Predict the 3D structure of the following.
Amino acid sequence: MRDSNIARLFNNRLVSCISGWTCHTINFVKLKGYGLDSYYDNYDPGSGGRLDSEIQKAFRKSKPIFTYYWEPTGLLGKFDLVKLKETPYTSSCWNEMMKVVTRVKKKGLKGYKSTRVCDYPDMVLTKAASSKFANNSSNRAIINFFEEYSLDTSEVNQLLAYYMYSSGGDMRKTARNFLYTSDTWLDWVPNDVATKVGNAIGRTDIAKKPKKKQPKKKEPKKKKPKPSPDDNKVVAAASGSGFFVSNSGDIITNHHVIEGCNVVKVNFKGSAVEAKTLAIDKVNDIAILKANIKPDKVYSVSNEDVSLLEDVIVAGYPLGKKVSSAIKTHKGVVTSLAGAGDNYSNFQTDATINQGNSGGPIMNQKGNIVGIAVATWVEDGVQGVHFGIKSSTLKTFASANGLRFLPPNNRDLSNKQLGQLITSGTVYLECHMTIAKIKKMIAEANNRKAFFSEYR
């Protein structure tokens, strides 16, 4: 693409997204980062409709076009656009690039500085059902269907194209056409159901394919913990993270971090200080603790919830002190404004959250809390799916319990200042409980505590 003859074929322009949209600034930074800015202008078509029109006009006149678009969309189902190969996405590259994008949006062209650039991130989609629905045996057929349901993005593009350009916006007609022309759905349903659907739409070519027999999952039998003479002994059992939100020692963490603990201790400047539990929210997994500590630094809490692709930093003590006793941080972006099962009190991020991070702060560059680290999606083949509790959920809970936060910072902190805040304002929490209680909780399949390895 870095060739003046090729650039002339495309009228020396990238038909970009709309000025004012973040993607327009991203494309500006990408053109410069790939060394394409001297060949192509970052052309603003003026509106989403005009962008569509530019692409349709190019195909109608058989003219080449260099453009930006997203998927799944009907437009990509109708026209055969080829995605150009870019530097593969990584969170570190994306975060670096987005800092420059933010600066350009604030300061204009003078805000640009040289940066790495890479492909846009893929959005992670998950299928989820509430445990109440999933555990109801009468819903088993529906659960089976959704477990099998899967559509390639290119096929979604084709479906949308048919709906928009061929069916006249008729959803039923689109569904019938898909069932009649595609074999994809045959893997979603049992053979008898496929045959019935085929007969209903006049399709007689459905071959009865032998279904893969899935071995029945054997539920592990819950073993009753064996009693021992040490059962009533109270020991350090599990760890988590927390953070100061007041100068009088108020600490925020997750409820599951302190659940079942006989004693919760806060590691502060080499000492273990016992903390009291002031309030818990089991539904949203939040707890307020108080310790007789005067912290050097405390966190303020953002008045606004996170936005999509916003840079965030997670801090805490993942894996307890197994790796090291030093605090650890991970950077990432917000990848979804809802958590698992469309839980809008949570958000999703690709910033790494491991066991032991639970209850730790998620902050922005201003040092304002935008979330509480709460969970990671654990499944084979799934990476980078982590969840935080939104700051608005925390503020509602804190306000109901008479806890007031410091006003949020309005200016970005330097990395050094942010590091000092993280080091002084984030704490390692240790849960002490009886050995009998440890055995009982570990035997429960749904417990989320980061138990120390000697008890697992």
User: Anything to note?
Assistant: Residues 91-107 form the longest helix (17 residues). The chain has three domains: 4-111, 131-200, 234-455.
